[in-house]
Amino acid sequence: MNKYEKGLVVEDNSPDEFGYYRTRPDDFKVGIPDTLNMRILLPIVFELLKSISYFGIVYFFTTYIWMDIGMDRKFIARIKTGLNFFYYFAILLGAVLSDQYFGNFKMIFFSSCLTVVGMILIGISTLETIKDSVKVPLFIVSMFLLFGIGSSFINPSIIAFSGNQVRKGYKPTKTDGVYIDSRATVERCYRYIYSASIVGGIVGTYIAPRIKNYDSPIINPLSSLAIMFVGIAAFISGYKIYYRNPITESSISKAYRCIKYALNNKKSSNSNWLDSSKSSKGGNYDDEFVDGLKRIKSMTT
């Protein structure tokens, strides 16, 4: 049986203005994903270009402090380890700030601006006119506090934002019993945006060594900056067509309570251990949220 065949069953079953049923219709047999529209494609394009820009800067960071500044390789490895740890913490913090305080769109926009400022200062730090006593601290601070935090804050927000652009519910197709299922569409959206991130990383890592100019180190950050500008322009071009969900509790805190409840109430009869948290009173989440966690888990494991 297809994993979208069962669907969600709640009380109201009237279609909205776009023809979507909020709940599973009686003749529902199978759910299929909808085509991805511009509201979803623009964030995916942004993620692709942002990843190209990000990995271009990361490559430049390693080569610049080794070949141009002359730092020891072991010291560089320690810096990169600290940078990665810092980024993971910033991703979690960004998710909480986005969900509970600012909203995804504002978080993406302002984090992108912070990233751009970091790139500009990274480029400035490579200029020969900058004193050595200023160059290295400016470069490190720009990488960690501006570029690092900005790019890390973007990651959880852009994923959640793209998923929120999907109309929720079931829409009938020309085939009897076959409906467009928003859950399948969200999963397709997540696969595309994760793929965009991976492809962007590959492209950025491939391009960066080929545009590096050892006589003018600023070429690399400027190239990444130009790509990031295009990505931001693509993203904000959809300002008027995006859906904006109201600011609520952080998905991380909801996921934590959901997982904790499922672990403490495992049932051998469930096909997935997360199903134990369905219909529970342990947190501000519904069965659809649990299904979303299951889809994310299936895509990342």
Automatic annotation (TrEMBL):
Pfam families: PTR2. It comes from the Eukaryota. InterPro entries: MFS_trans_sf, POT_fam. The keyword Metal-binding does not apply. The chain crosses the membrane at residues 40-65, 85-102, 108-127, 139-161, 192-209, 221-242. It is found in: Membrane. GO terms for cellular component: membrane. SUPFAM superfamilies: MFS general substrate transporter. The keyword Membrane applies. Keywords: Membrane, Transmembrane, Transmembrane helix. One of its GO terms (molecular function) is transmembrane transporter activity. This is Solute carrier family 15 member 1.
